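Subject: Re: docking follow-up (ISJ)

Dear J.,

Thanks for your patience while I sorted out the input files. As discussed at Tuesday's group meeting, I've set up the holo structure prediction with ISJ included as the bound ligand rather than trying to dock it afterwards. The sequence and the ligand SMILES I used are pasted below, so you can double-check that they match what you have on your end before we go further.
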Amino acid sequence: MDKVKISAVSYTNTQPFIYGITHSDIIDQIDLSLDIPADCAQKLIDNQVDIGLIPVAATVNMPYWEIVSDYCIGANGPVNSVFIFSNCEIHEVKTLQLDPESRSSNNLARVLLKNHWQVTPQLIVNAPDYAHSDDPDTAFVQIGDRTFDKKGKYAYTYDLAEVWKEFTGLPFVFAAWIANKPIPQEFTAEFSKALKHGLDNRKTVIANLPARADFDLDDYLMHKLDFDLDADKVKALHLFIDYIKKLN
Ligand SMILES: C=C(O[C@@H]1C=C(C(=O)O)C=C[C@H]1O)C(=O)O
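The structure tokens for the complex came back this morning:
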């Protein structure tokens, strides 16, 4: 059988899954690549891979997709790695610079700005520096490890999973394991077991990560991230997709 091609997110949030996959026999059946979230999505859309840990917002452009496994990159309340940082209070924002590596959080920011905060800033997709502007009315979507040392560096900080929870009462799913074609059940069952193995060994994963003085990796991987794709998260995923479709 050909190997199953899989693209996973190259950030710290995915390290438990990578540990589980690479410490299970299923690794012999997998051709694994690590990519930024936007590229995970593009590879799945372009059929360069069969399964991706892709930003759920990217499913909006896919003719066929199915969820693989009961695991995801989610949060039930603050996630501590997905923010709008801003030079001004959120209601004053005139320009929003998007994060080029994101698909879900850029859309989550737009959904919350429109429906929760009720402001409609101009969007900048390819800012010269996505993380910086001297303009006093500019805000920035930022995700992943690049945010770990950023809190306190901007005048205002908004954790987008926390604001989504205030807005909907629900957890949030940033990325899920999604296939662009039907995957044999024998494979998905073993793949799920490998993912669970990684989650069960998070303490080992954390011990193996380079320690950081500026970020609590244990709190992030054990508490802030919520990896279980439970019924509330599936509900949130579909609600989010509905909001995205109503954006324009
Ligand atoms: C929690 C996070 O979730 C992520 C956010 C994503 C996005 O905005 O498209 C995609 C994958 C996840 O890595 C994060 O990266 O900090």
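A couple of observations from a first look. The first helix runs from residue 15 to 22. The two ends are 43 Å apart (CA to CA).

Let me know if you'd like me to rerun anything.

Best regards,
T.
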